């Protein structure tokens, strides 16, 4: 009986079975999964569990170290030094699909959310039955082929295996199966029944089954990583139609340059008594939608001035677009960040546009379900605000993936109690939980993480507190570490964040499915943070309608580039 039990035990060894879930919880990812996401790290917190910070920015390289596209450094994960009890692992294993989805999200991020919500019901019952039979036949065939007395059965089994392989190589659903497939199934079942009745060495069959299991798992893992990579490629690549729009606008600009700005508009750009909004963007359509939605809900659009900060590549396209499109009574200024002259830039180091950085922060705890939060924070470019806008005292910074649905004039009357940055906080991620993530830096245990998207910035206090200097010092100290922007931003603004009411912004519309539509309709500002931006085909359809209504489908440039 002991020998029989040993032969029939599952493919995975006992220690692997017992620790399967525990290992996944501790390591979150045992090796680099998606190269090119900025460096990611998970660290243990003895009191709160494991915190894995995953950056999700705009460049990717490949999978498992294969350099497919030049991008950012490899992500990294670190195991929790405290092991998870085996009994807990066994209990967690019972949780099934939900926990599996969470572990998938730890490894692959929002790809798993997208995959889960785009599963199609496929009629492939017969195809799956064929695969099962083929699996068993392959396991028995080597043992049968070694026995000279069973040449006839061996030949018949080989023919059936080859026939099934041929059919399955071109078929994935039942309706594509050839005629008389039922007869082939019956024939294969009969051959397998004969093979099982033969006296063969079970250990050989067992070894073959183990090999097939390993190959199947490797194949499934490969397809998962390949799918995740293609998803990353789709969400991080500018759509062809948007690239067309930028190129056409640039060409048109040089054909018919926009007229010089008159003096009255130039004065408005510098007038600190007006309401100034700043948008860092390299996307013409996205920044236009932000401005359009803001002015359409403004009580007094004539008091609004928008400063769109972009790079040299998109500067001329932006200039033409905003000179030809009017936004009520508001004024729009386009700035090329590469032309900005910095006071402390003696070596004339080139300045490059960087957009808000997005990160995935995952906590996997022993006694509670794992949780994943998505944060967006200021990028390097945001810390140039005081030098770009010398004459301004207060600005509202908007990300280019937001849509405004209410008047924002109340923001200018908020007393921020001497704080620098008015932002919506995400107290599901506290700095105390990320203590080890910050190394030996002092952490205020009561501080919460905060979000970019909608930020009220007091530039006077910013200059007084030398926020930019603090940030640059931290970046220099952390230069060789991972997720530098997140670390430095959270530490820089410790004690300098004024918590805006949560009602101001509804975040997560670029990764979170199932948000109540009434809540979306009633929100003051919608933030599409996450991978699935509303201008992409992979955008979450239930929410993208709120973005598209601020884009004019009749615009000739959009029609020419097939943007619909």
From TrEMBL:
Domain of life: Eukaryota
Protein name (database record): Galacturonosyltransferase 7 isoform X3
Organism lineage string: Eukaryota, Viridiplantae, Streptophyta, Embryophyta, Tracheophyta
Gene symbol of the encoding locus: LOC107832467
